[in-house]
Amino acid sequence: MNDQTKQYYDALKAKEYRKERKPLSDPLPEMYEPPYDSDCYVRYYKTVLSEAFPILLPGDDFGFHKSCTDVSRGLRAGNYTLNYARVIGEGFGPVLDRLKARVAKESDPEKLELGNAMIACIEEIPPIVEKYRKAAEDAGHVRLAEALTRIPWEGAKTFYEACLFFQICIYFLRSGMTAHLGLGRFDQYMLPYFESDLKRGVPEEELFETLERFFISLNVDSDSYHGIQAGDNGQSIVLGGFNVSGDYQINRLSELCIEACRELKLIDPKINIRVGKNTPFEVYKKGTLLTKEGLGFPQYCNDDVVIPGLIALGYRPEDAYDYVVAACWEFIIPNVGADIPNRCSMDFPKIVSEVLDEHLTGAETFEDLFAFVDEKIRANADDFLTKGNLAEEAPLPLDAVFLDGCLESLKGVYSGGARYMNFGAHGPGIAIAADALMAVKELIYEKKVLTKELLLDALHADFEGYEDVRKLLLSCPKMGNNEDPVDELAGRLMESFATHLNGRPAISGGIWRAGTGSAQGYISRGKRCPATADGRKAGEPYPSSFSPALGMKTNGLLSTIQSFTKFDLKKVINGGPLTIEVHDTVFRNELGIEKTAMLVKEFIDLGGHQLQINAVNRETLLDAKAHPENYPNLIVRVWGWSGYFVELAPEYQDHIIKRLEFEY
Amino acid sequence: MSGTVFSIEEFSIYDGPGIRTTVFLKGCPMRCRWCHNPEGQSFSPEEVKTAGGAEMRISGQVWEAEDLVKKLLKNKPILSHGGGVTFSGGEPLSQPEFLLECLKKLKGHLHTAVQTAGNVPAEVFDEVIPWADLVLFDLKLMDPGKSLAWTGQDNAPILRNFDALTRRSLPFLVRTPLIPGVTDTEENLGAIAGLLDRHGVSGIELLPYNKMAGGKYASLGRIYDPGFDESAEPDPRTALFSAHGIEAKVL
Questions:
Q1: The CATH fold of domain B2-250
Q2: Does B70 lie at the interface with A, CB-CB under 8 angstroms?
Q3: Contacts of B219 in chain A (CB under 8 A)
């Protein structure tokens, strides 16, 4: 980090710039009532921009930060990756010319309305850019002031200009109704700028500083995005990946992205790494070095599973090979796609719970019972088919500028402009549902040591006065321990989900896709779900996404990754990672890094679709100290040997916690 | 044939090459004052409690060799890629028949390592050890008096078994715990370096003492009384080894 980058970084941390923001004199209008037409969007967009003023941090050569305190209600769209690269290469000037020429030939009123709105959105850009140019000039931010004489009206020529252009794109899209803007395959589409700069003799170190400052810029407004929680802004970046000819595409820029994130330790961008059987081991090692930082990324995505999975759902192969990750884990197509991968959730624990209530007494065999589960999954899937009315979606004229084909077709993002408009459904709590069915199968139908009445009474009483029943349920095989009987039940649940949902028509005109994610539902759905037959009490959370039940002591990581790779995961390609936690002391030396990288590779080679591996940090340990029952698997390295954190004496727990103290 | 195991740890990092599962056998003839694994000392199962005094679990489960091997082989798809299984303890050679049966059953299926302090009868060592694919051998204290004082055992059988090990064609790794003022002295590490040199051993792994070592005593209702200055920084004195052309790796 050179002096300028350090200055910018320190200013970000000091947060002084946030005090410069002002409320809009007219608060954001309550304009977002139906109908959501283009006019409505443009009015909103103009309101946000009407009082925008430049904010520049020390060392900042990017700018374009939010200046109003109002949190834009970017509710209407997003969670996709637009074709920034095309616009960055072309410049808004030529784009506007093409657009105007296209609109001039149009007579359809609906298309005209969209086309004119697209023009209006672009025309709002130059005055703001000029304000920034002037401010940069006055404050001595020479590089920025100079670049803004061309950018974004002309196409970018250098790596710096391309990054700056990107920042400008994000700024204006966010001023509209868009949240969750993914950066997509940044290391691929930015590579030409990076390489051409190198060829011109720009030192790599200088490009790295530019990259770092761009990444810092992505964090400047992280407190004021619309989202479920602060920082949930969808700024995912996807590195690496195989092309159609099977070549693995990782380059120097990909490495520098990882390097920059390691050094900056900020929440954005969130790194995803596309890997597969033929990915060089070095890539896993570099990824693990990033995991070590305890930032919660990278997330790994398996091309060998995801690409065929997407093709099987009807995506064009060239698009499937180009896949990226949406805000969390959903596999989507950049540039041409506007999939909505989080439309519904198949709440597996609740389904099993309802089936037990309604049918356990009458079901003579376990297979009879499972048939009711399958039936309920189908009924839920049927119900999804009527959901997600796109009439509620804004036409998003500015987004349409960035989505391939919209400028030519003059169709809105969600009105036929996108090549893909498929809907995705999450699948929270698969492990809980499988564990519950396993307990019923084993205790009631096979060993016959528990009666149906007693189980239902215990569940209805939330195990109050039925601790022995709960103990029995808890002793049954659980998903995550590499035990075939329960893993197969999980597989049957996913098979049923896939069979009843994949490829069925969505209201959007696209199709439905099943997944293994949970989104925030693992807390909220858990709260609403009564006691389950795996021994989980009413209201307790589900595990995050595709993971073993919370607090379940597993045999260990090797068993867990096998449990979660048995099913053919190509069928649940809406995504949702297995999440595992490793204490960050494991990453202390080269050996721990190497072995963790090996473990990730094993997971991928076994056919896992997605993995989130976390280095557990101090906060988790504090929580583990207060609630040891939730952390039976948390391993800490002791000395040539590792131990379970919860079994250590308090002073030793405190010692480790203290050891991990560091400031974000 | 059955044996007592106090922990099976999947994905253990420091117990040999590749991805490994380590099986900790319960019971050890030594009583090293710095022992970080007190669960491994007694041969009988015992209660482990949380800091609050609630019983967490019983440490020490009796396994049939056949069942244990079956369980270990379930992870073969992962363990067979350059990793394997390590038997540690406690002193795994203190349950020789059980260990031998496990090693025999795993032969040809998974790579095995045995982590031993070598303090067992010569005939036990000579019979069991050839069945392992790798030996991780602990050398703690070279002076017999100090060995007795700090580990409760004379080191003659250890040195004998070490000598026997070096005469085999079996791969092995030497490890020494660096206990401040006890094993990390110039005298002790110098003697170890000399011994390795005489046997033509080219490397050693040094494991610095970690202040966490006493962490598990309370959960077993015991008091940790190491008898040395825990706060002192252990000194690896790698120069003593490089003087003999031995590569010393500090883990």
A1: TIM Barrel (3.20.20)
A2: no
A3: 647-649
